[in-house]
Specification:
19 strands, transmembrane helix, alpha/beta, Alkaline_phosphatase_core_sf
Length: about 1250
């Protein structure tokens, strides 16, 4: 770098400062600054004008001194130019001397070469160049050529010539070096002189133009001030217009929000109307279904009447035929008697004729004899005898006539009766034909009505479907409208925030304008033009502006080399330090100093009144005043940082308070623990002192223990469905019926909890809960073709499922092989099948032995037929009354599977360790959800204590109650692991834990070795499978939520598994089901919230609970004031002396082989008689009152609610469907 670079930098600074001065003059002459304490920027002055002087003209004196300093620099440059001229002259003298020496050397070299050439001969001379035209280099080359080519020169001459040539070369090299040095110095001096002259001219011209332009700027300052004021006024007017526009936008947004709210209300009204229409359609469908059922029942009743009349007509016809036959017999007998009488009459006539002949003969003979007797006496005797005989004959004839007349009359009467009977029979047949025709017409009418009802029902169902679709669409529109409302509200809020920010920005800009005026005022007002200090007549000895970090050095009078080294290094350091500090200070000043929330000094670049700040700041900070500027900037930045820190502290405090309030308002986690077949008398907290259940007992101590807790059914599937839906399972057909199972019996089947039913998991998932189900499901697997998509619980609101899609079965522990063919005679079917197979094979061999191909084909067909027959008879139960059952091998390999989210993990499942595996999975889920800090719902269903009994070796034999007791204690240990996980992750205080059993213990269960495998239901009668017996539905129930649910309290208020869904929702602070899921069809819940019972130990409200056994209503429970009444409509036929239907038979009590109490229901007061030993006397006032109320409720219920057919009655849906069977795919 040349020394004139310093001059260029100062000139550039003066040019940049010129515009800043104009801005300062404009503001200072326009509005004088208010009197206030001096700003830290007040001391940013030139070193020649030290701080502390109060004349206020420091900036202008600095500018004039800068101009004087530039003139001094010009004078110094002129001096340096004179010095350089002298150096050029000296260099020129040296160059002339070198030229003279060079010419002398050339002459000497030419003479020497001439002599050498003359001595060498004429040939060489003639070929050499002329002496006058030779150069030193050419002469040297010629000499060397001559020496090397000359063969006539002596040795001495050659040496002399070589020495002379060497001396000449040295001299020539020295001359060349001196010549080059001189030329270099000369060119450098000339270039420096030219550059210095040009810089001097530029500095003079720039100084003159700067002075002229400064004068022009001073004269135009007022004009620019007016222009700036106009710009400020225009900006203010623009802000006012923008504020008005924003106000209008705000009003328009508010109007839009009001319109959207009105539209939202209209949509809500429409949605409510659609819900009412959907409910009305549901009720219409129910009414139509009821009418259809009534019509079908009427049709069946008419068919029964027609059949009865047909039977009566047939009986009457039979009786008439029998009467006709009997009368025909009697007529034949009368005719026979008539013929006999005629024969007897003929015989009597013959006898009479013979008698007359005998009398005549006697009379003739008497004349001869009478000759010896008296003639008169003989005649008189003979006449008397003849007369008597004559009378007898006449009487006989008369009787005979009478008999004939009687027989004829009887025959006539018999003929008339027969004709009458025939006429009556014909009339009856005609009447029967007419009745048949009438009944046929009536049945046709009923069929027509039933068809019309079915069609109307189908139309109603389609209407319901359309209404539901419309409701869903309306729900979607409602959701989109709500989103639009929220978006508009957000836009309105943003617009309002922008308006407020604009107002704040306006205030901040006003504050910044005042601050800038104060900052500008700190530099002092410009002096009047007439008071400018005169130029100093003497040049300043220092030729550069010193750095603020180095002392002031006087510029030494040195040659150009020292100037190039010292001045270049010093000015370069000054430039670098000034640039860095200026850039950093300007960035900090204009970017990081916070004036108002959301507005920094960086925004002032957009204002016309602060355009001068970057230039002024950079100019001021490039000199010694950078220290004071840095101090001022540091003060401002630290002040802003302190404000920011205070603001951040307040924000942090607000955030912590928000986090605390969010933690307080965070919904509780929910854990439901369901035991399988556990009796109420199996736990220590319910009075059992033979089994050890410390974890369940601890849960009861920390929560509320329900002692009158009821299941909704006596079997697994319906009871669990009621727990999750809050509705009786009979409402949606998840109950059994006669000749059908009562639970889901196959994994590969279509039955299960209907998708239309809303579960607790769906409700909680809608409230942003993470839901998971672990363990036994038993509500349908939902498998598709080839076992794809066996989502089980995931179809009903659970995000994750790990466990058994079905349940445990005794067949899982069976060892029966696939190829089962007993030959011990226990089943004669196999002997018959074997015999038929052998006979068929022998017959085929006998008939087709000479045709091998035909024999082979027939044998294959026969083998296939027998194999299929054997397979279906062995592995399916279609030939039995339990058609839904399969063989133990099929159960063990097809139904005993463990799946996770639709993927089969184990098939078959290893039962030992299953309880620990399920518990470990739940513990892992709790740990995961604790890390996610997301409220979760965990539904853990234990595999215990359902048969078969199994435990890990460590738990076997520890209980005094055998394998069943070991299973109970293993379940208790698994429950303890889950509770320990909640405690470990600090979730215990914000988690609702609910423990319950699905129904009572299985009293009749027994293992193959005779050991009991069922539980204990206390003193309550009945057990599993008995939907109305107290032992079948009275179950343990425990709720715990520290700080919310009363701890260590036992409550005898009647509660139900149906209450789970509404209770959990209310405890979690969630709205009711129809409000939480408004887009789904309305579902009437049969359960009710018992939150007041749990949190306040309040009395149970009055209610009536229905106890079903399959689809049949066997009992009702009525909570009235302080009493609990139970009315039995049917009773189980227990074994004498017990409350079981056959201990050790592994069966359940039937819901159909029962004693009917419907005519005289049995009524018990469970408060006074909890074990149902003494019914209330029939006919008493209490009996009549309570039974009347309950029967009225039952009649209203049956009229309002109709149960659909059992879903298990369909063979195609319930039985094993191999095409739906899932299998484990080996990895």
């Amino acid at each position: 770098m040349f020394p004139e670079a310093s001059v260029r930098m100062d000139v550039a600074d003066s040019l940049r400062y010129r515009e800043a001065v104009a801005r300062l003059k404009q503001l200072l002459y326009d509005e004088p600054p208010p009197e206030e304490p001096p700003s830290p920027l007040h001391h940013l002055h030139h070193p020649h004008h030290p701080p502390g002087r109060g004349d206020g003209g420091g900036a202008w004196r600095w500018l004039l001194e800068l101009l004087h300093h530039q003139e001094d620099l010009i004078t110094q440059l002129e001096k340096e130019n004179e010095f350089l001229k002298k150096e050029v002259v000296s260099v020129g003298d040296g160059l002339r001397k070198l030229a003279e020496d060079n010419q002398d050397l050339h002459r000497r070299l030419s003479s020497t070469l001439t002599q050498a050439l003359e001595e060498a001969g004429s040939e060489s001379i003639s070929s050499s160049p002329a002496a006058g035209s030779i150069t030193p280099t050419a002469a040297l080359l010629s000499c060397l050529l001559i020496i090397s080519s000359s063969s006539f020169c002596s040795y001495g001459q050659k040496e002399a010539l070589q020495e002379e040539v060497a001396r000449m070369e040295e001299a020539l090299a020295a001359v060349s070096r001196r010549e080059k040095e001189a030329l270099t110095r000369l060119s450098h001096a000339l270039a420096l002189a030219e550059h210095t002259q040009a810089q001097t001219s530029q500095v003079r011209a720039s100084s003159e133009s700067a002075i002229e332009k400064l004068s022009a700027d001073l004269t135009t300052a007022q004009q620019e001030a007016g222009r700036l004021r106009a710009q400020l006024d225009e900006a203010e007017a623009r802000r006012v217009r923008e504020a008005g526009a924003r106000d209008r936008q705000t009003r328009e947004a508010e109007n839009k929000i009001g319109a959207l709210k009105a539209e939202r209300e209209e949509q809500e009204r429409r949605l409510t109307q659609l819900r009412e229409e959907a409910r009305e359609a549901d009720r219409k469908v129910i009414d139509l279904e009821y009418d259809l059922q009534t019509a079908e029942e009427t049709k069946r009743r008419l068919e029964d009447q027609l059949e009865e009349q047909r039977r009566h007509a047939l009986d009457a016809t039979t009786r008439l035929d029998q009467i006709l036959l009997s009368r025909s017999g009697e007529a034949a007998a009368g005719a026979a008697r008539a013929r006999d009488l005629e024969e007897r009459l003929d015989a009597a006539r013959e006898d009479t004729a013979k008698l007359l002949q005998a009398v005549t003969a006697l009379a003739k003979g008497g004349g001869r004899v009478g000759e010896t007797h008296s003639t008169d006496d003989v005649k008189s005797e003979r006449l008397a005898a003849g007369q008597e005989l004559q009378e007898a004959l006449e009487a006989l004839h008369a009787r005979h006539e009478e008999d004939v007349a009687g027989v004829e009359s009887a025959a006539k009467h018999q003929s008339e009766a027969t004709d009458a009977l025939r006429q009556e029979l014909a009339a009856l047949r005609e009447q029967l034909a007419r009745d048949n025709e009438t009944h046929r017409e009536t049945l046709a009418q009923k069929d027509t009505q039933a068809t019309a009802l079915r069609q109307e029902l189908q139309e109603a169902r389609e209407e319901v479907v359309r209404a539901r679709e419309q409701l869903r669409a309306c729900g979607g529109l409602y959701q989109r409208a709500m989103d639009a409302v929220r978006d508009k509200e957000a836009e309105s809020a943003e617009l309002l925030a922008r308006v407020r920010a604009s107002q704040q920005e306006r205030q901040c800009l006003l504050q910044e304008t005042a601050m800038l005026r104060r900052v500008i005022a700190a530099t002092g007002p410009p002096p009047p033009p007439s008071q400018s200090p005169p130029h100093s007549p003497h040049p300043v000895p220092n030729t550069h502006i010193p750095s603020p970090t180095s002392p002031i050095h006087a510029r030494p009078s040195s040659p150009a080399t020292r100037i190039l080294t010292e001045e270049t290094r010093e000015e370069k350091n000054h430039e670098k330090e000034a640039g860095l500090v200026s850039q950093l200070a300007a960035d900090e000043l204009f970017r990081n100093v916070t004036v108002a929330p959301g507005v920094t000094l960086f925004h002032m670049y957009q204002s016309p009144c602060v355009v001068i700040i970057p230039r002024l700041g950079r100019f001021l900070l490039t000199r010694k005043a950078m220290k004071w500027a840095a101090v001022a900037v540091a003060v401002i930045v630290l002040t802003g940082a302190a404000a920011d820190n205070g603001h951040e502290a307040q924000e942090t405090e607000k955030q912590s308070e928000t986090v605390k309030s969010n933690e307080q308002r965070r919904p509780p986690n929910i854990v439901i623990l369901v035991a399988d077949d556990l009796g109420i008398g199996d736990l220590g907290c319910y009075g059992n002192n033979t089994l050890k259940t410390p974890n369940i007992d601890s849960l009861a101590k920390g929560g509320m223990q329900l002692t009158h807790h009821l299941a909704a059914a006596g079997l697994c599937s319906p009871s669990r469905a009621a727990l999750l839906t809050g509705r009786y399972p009979a409402r949606y057909g998840m109950v059994g019926q006669k000749n059908a199972p009562s639970v889901v019996v196959q994994v590969a089947s279509k039955v299960g909890l209907p998708l239309e039913e809303i579960t607790l998991a769906e409700a909680l998932a809608a409230a942003n809960y993470t839901t998971a189900a672990v363990g036994k499901w038993h509500l349908g697997s939902g498998c598709g073709l080839l076992g794809k998509g066996c989502l089980a619980a995931q179809q009903h609101g659970f995000h994750h499922f790990f466990g058994l899609p079905l349940t445990l079965l005794n067949d899982y522990a069976s060892t029966q092989p696939f190829f089962y063919f007993p030959c011990d005679g226990s089943d004669p079917f196999y002997q018959i099948l074997l015999t038929v197979a052998v006979v068929s094979v022998v017959t085929l061999w006998w008939q087709c032995g000479r045709h091998p191909l035909l024999l082979f084909i027939c044998f294959c067909v026969l083998s296939t037929v027998f194999s299929i027959t054997w397979f279906f008879y062995t592995h399916y139960g279609f030939h039995t009354d339990k058609w839904w059952k399969v063989s133990p091998w099929m159960n063990r390999h097809l139904n005993n599977i463990l799946i996770e989210d639709g993927v089969v993990l184990q098939q078959p499942v290893k039962l030992e360790g299953l309880s620990q595996q399920l518990a470990s999975h739940s513990v892992g889920l709790i740990a995961k959800y604790a890390r996610d800090e997301q409220p979760f719902f965990l539904y853990h269903s234990f595999a215990h204590v359902h048969t078969p009994m199994f435990t890990v070796p460590q738990m076997a034999g520890r209980s005094a109650q055998g394998r069943y007791g070991d299973n109970v204690e293993e379940m208790d240990a698994a429950l303890g692991e889950i509770l320990a996980a909640l405690h470990e992750h600090n979730l215990e205080d914000n988690t609702i834990v609910y423990f319950v059993s699905d129904h009572g213990a299985h009293l009749e269960a027994i293992d193959e070795d005779g050991q009991r495998s069922g539980g204990y239901n206390g003193l309550f009668k009945g057990g599993k499978g008995m939907g109305a017996a107290e032992g079948g539905i009275r179950v343990p129930g425990i709720y715990r939520w520290p700080g919310h649910i009363l701890a260590g309290v036992k409550v005898d208020a009647p509660t139900s598994l149906l209450d789970t869904l509404p209770t959990i929702l209310e405890l979690a602070g969630l709205p009711p089901l129809h409000e939480l899921l408004p887009h789904l069809p309305y579902r009437e819940l049969d359960g009710m919230s018992i939150t007041d019972v749990l949190t306040k130990n309040a009395h149970a409200p009055s209610r009536t609970l229905i106890h079903h056994c399959d689809r049949n209503i066997h009992a009702l429970r009525f909570i009235y004031e302080e009493n609990v009444f139970k009315m039995h409509l049917a009773g189980n036929k227990w074994k004498p002396g017990s409350t079981q239907c056959g201990w050790g038979s592994n069966v359940f009590c039937s819901c159909y082989d029962v004693e009917d109490y419907s005519q005289e229901p049995r009524l018990y007061n469970l408060r006074q008689d909890p074990y149902e030993d003494s019914p209330i006397p029939v006919g008493s006032s209490k009996y009549n009152q309570i039974v009347g109320i309950m029967l009225q409720f039952l009649a209203e219920w049956q009229a309002r609610v109709s149960y659909p057919p059992s879903m298990f009655s369909s063979v195609s849906d319930t039985a094993l469907s191999p095409w739906l069977q899932p299998f484990r795919i080996p990895s």
